[in-house]
Amino acid sequence: MENAPLSPLEQRLIAHLQTIYPNLDTKELAERCLTTFHLDPATESPRPHRNLWDQSDIMLITYADTLRRKEEAPLETLHKFVKSKLSDSISAVHLLPFFPYSSDDGFSVMDYTTVNPSCGQWDHVSNLSKDFKVMGDLVINHCSSRSLWFENYKAGVNPGASFFYEADPSADLSAVVRPRTSSLLREVQTKNGEKHVWCTFSHDQVDLNFENPDVLLEFLRIIHLYLEKGIRWFRLDAVAFLWKVPGTSCINLPQTHEIIRLLRLMIEHYAPESVIITETNIPNQENLTYFGNANEAHLIYNFSLPPLLINSLVTGNCSHLKQWLMSMAPAQQGTTYLNFVASHDGIGLRPTEGLLSEWELETLINTMKRFGGKISSRTTPQGEAKPYEINISLWNALSGSAQQGPDQWQFARFLCAVGVMMALEGVPAFYIHSLFGTENDLDRVNNTGHYRSINRHIWDMEELEHVLNTPTHHQKVFQSVTKLTQIRRAQPAFHPNATQYILHMGENLFAFWRQSLDRRQSLFAVYNMTDQPQHFNLSELNLIANDDWTDLVSEQVYEDRLGKVTLMPYQFVWLANKKGKIKSSA
Fold first, then answer.
1. How far is residue 280's CA from residue 471's CA, in Å, rounded to a whole number?
2. Span 414-434, mean pLDDT?
3. Strand order from edge to edge, sheet including 522-528
4. How would you classify residue 220: left for phi > 0, otherwise alpha for psi between -120 and 50, otherwise beta?
5. Is 237 a catalytic residue?
6. Within 13 A of 77's CA, how many CA atoms are on the CB side?
7. What is the rounded distance in angstroms from the CA atom of residue 518 to the CA atom of residue 513?
8. CA distances from 557 to 539, 554, 560 (A)
9. How many CA atoms lie within 13 A of 4 on its CB side?
10. What angle do CA 494, 516, 541 make, to 5 degrees?
11. DSSP 3-state assignment of 559?
12. With left for phi above 0 and alpha for psi between -120 and 50, is residue 8 left, alpha or beta?
């Protein structure tokens, strides 16, 4: 058996390990990886370039405890709500970190294997996975300074003794890319004397040392546990910072990409329907590299979309949004984009680098401040503080224009943003507060001292049910958005990999064409991005003459192929030659 030929899986795994750990016995390490992951070396490889999604896939992003009801585990409350109110609207639920944590609303994980008792238990997660696809957060770059691993690190015992990345404070670390203003290194007293540990994000979030293969093996154990509990979609949090080489930027390094390929290899062999998403809030061209050659992330976040779309809607000019989308190559089969306009974090500004001028960025920032937003900063390699993200709820971000301030078009502008996000190439993802039009939570900011809390409101279920059942903007948003999701899920032209072409209709009208994979359904999406009525002629769209064209949003039929269309402020149309049938679970 010593000389038994290696299986294709073993060969591929060893190749990844040799790139990451060139000085180790990678054959022996590969055996440990497979054993840890409970994976048979003879497992056949899944067929490449499979689309593990279609037009019916829409994701909900939420904390496990955003919805709370007395005497009920928040995970159970959430499950009941999405099952009763959103079964026709979403297919997947992204549960933000639901583990015991010490800071950063869950992203300082103390124990990766336990559900925070204040949220519920593993059975709640498994039950949710029976009704919806569940995406879990793999907080892979760092863990809590209050974790058992870090306590063991300080005491010099395992597991944890060499789990954390140490650096020499006298080394030249000026090139390191930082997303925060805190000092990079934290001084720690250990059994082996004074050490300086690496903290990309905060001093409570200590970076893990993947140069130690035991850290990789530990995360393989964790991922296997999540798979056993029903999680099939994996969000690799802050993964761009994973590998460090002092003297470099310590972001997007080759070893980081290789580790993602290795995790993809293991996960898709164990559960072929699984999906990996990389969370890399970085400039657009760097972000695109995480697709690899369709062998890294299945999906990447379209991080440039939120700032460019919001900028378009508050300025009335879609030029930058259009130019950016025209520069984006269609994703290969088996990969696609995750589109979002709002998230639990703020509106990232690094993804606007090279896309908005300094003056335009300043105008956007000042407009968001006017609407109640806060600005978080990072430190550049030159030591300067630079705006990193805008912290604001989507409802408030779209409350007016840069020129006039708050106006009467807030709801129309909000729905237009949602309509763009849902129609673009990729899988749409709704942050839960975007379903309700939740406002800025300034009380929570004051209580926590953190700007990101502005968009992390906790809803009491009785209060939420009340506002959704009475004539409020919350009810109007919820009913309108869920109606749009149901329309969207029925259209083959909205398949995440369906053809997309951006159309040239000036700076006030944003428009594109989608065509289904079988080429039977064509759909023209046209949006008025301004607070004034805009007109266009249907002749500009090249409608197929023999087909009937209907706006799926208003259900208006357009028989005159040369007719003139007037769009009111922020109104949009989804003109289709065929109507997909909307399914209902009712």
1. 39
2. 98
3. 499-503, 509-515, 522-528, 572-576, 549-551, 557-558
4. alpha
5. yes
6. 23
7. 15
8. 15, 9, 9
9. 9
10. 85
11. coil
12. alpha
- By C-alpha distance, which of 455, 453, 359, 366 is closest to 403? 366
Classify each residue of 530-564 as buried b or exposed e, where b means 16 or more C-beta atoms within 10 Å of its C-beta: bbeebebebeebebeeeeebbbbbeeeebeeeeee
Q: Which one is catalytic: 57, 104, 137, 237?
A: 237
Per-residue pLDDT tens digits for 159-185: 999 999 999 999 999 999 999 999 999
- Looking at the DSSP assignment, which residues form a beta bridge with residue 525? 512, 574
DSSP states of 146-180 as a string?
TSHHHHHHHHT-SSSTT-B-B--TTS--TT---SS
Look up residue 470 and give its amino acid. Answer: T
SS3 of 524, please? strand
Q: What is the rounded distance in angstroms from the CA atom of residue 187 to the CA atom of residue 189?
A: 7
Q: Which residue has the tokens 């979609």?
A: 233
pTM of the model: 0.97
Contact between 200 and 104 (Cβ < 8 Å): no
> What's the pLDDT band for 1 if we cut at 50, 70, 90?
very low
E-state strands within 466-555: 499-503, 509-515, 522-528, 534-537, 549-551
Residues 127-132: contacts with CB under 8 Å, at least 24 apart: 127/79, 128/75, 128/78, 128/79, 128/82, 128/93, 128/95, 128/230, 129/229, 129/230, 129/231, 129/232, 130/230, 131/79, 131/82, 131/83, 131/87, 132/82, 132/90, 132/91, 132/92, 132/93
H or E, element range at 422 = helix 410-423
pLDDT tens-digit readout, 304-324: 999 999 999 999 999 999 999
